[in-house]
Write a structure and sequence with these properties.
The chain is an alpha/beta fold and 307 residues long. 39% of the residues lie in helices and 15% in strands. It contains twelve helices and eight strands. An eight-stranded parallel barrel has the order 1-2-3-4-5-6-7-8, surrounded by five helices. β6, α7 and β7 form a beta-alpha-beta unit. The chain starts with 26 loop residues before the first strand and ends in a 10-residue tail after the last helix. The relative contact order is 0.17. The N terminus and C terminus are likely disordered.
Length: 307
Amino acid sequence: MGFLNFAVGQGQKAARPAPSELMQGWSIEVMPRTAAKVDDFRALLPAGTRVYIAHIDGTPIEDMVATARRISEEGFPVMPHFPARSIPSRDVLADWLSRYRNEANVSQALLLGGGIAVPAGDFESSIQLMETGLFDRYGFTHLHVAGHPEGNRDIDPDGSTANVDEALLWKQDFASRTDAEVAITTQFAFDAKSVISWAERIRDAGVTLPIHVGIAGPAKLQTLIKYALSCGVGPSLQVLQKRARDITKLLLPYEPTEVVAELSQHKAARPDSLIQQLHVFPLGGIKTAAEWMNERGFVKAEAALQA
């Protein structure tokens, strides 16, 4: 397994890097409105790439299911978001699951608490969604849960990690009670060290779930700082602010080269690390993100999609 090494001398043509294990089987996130701008995902993504569909509050379920059906028919496994606080009731959850299974052939889900302050109905957390047993009942084979390498102030207002840690251990136990494969997908990060430290810490606490690390695809620095502020990422925001102070980098588009290289080097040195794959947030556009990953990954995704 090789390291990523994207640095080249002035005037030299960049050599095609050796593939990193983390670059094999990466996934990507879309929204219905952004997916609609892509004529054919087969022209952008390696065969077998998992496509998450973000459920922005207020998006009609009909739009979500239609997007899932279209991407599934193009041959990609689809993992829609299920934001607990946006789901009014158990009956609505059952209806969504039925629609995804029967209309779009979906059997994967990312379970989230959701970003709205006041729940729409019965659910406040992803744990409550899991406790319904409905995902097993409807034959969902892969369930991913949120990971927070830099904490989450909505869950732990005091800045600690007590509540997120307790929830993650509950989900670890749940994984032993479900037929579905369970994994962790994280918020995007720009600071690899904080992600690695968190992964090591939760492993020491007894978590064995695979981690899919969120990274931001290439984008303008101003765009990334806006998203980082809205998502409350701490050490990662500091990385972006440091970059913004460097006049030589201020006007250049951000690329996740350094964070991917550092994560890949960690994985090579620690093959038993929980960190398993990369999940791309295409904040600068789906095509731009996919092209960047394809140029550096160039390995089909099917073999890595079982986690």
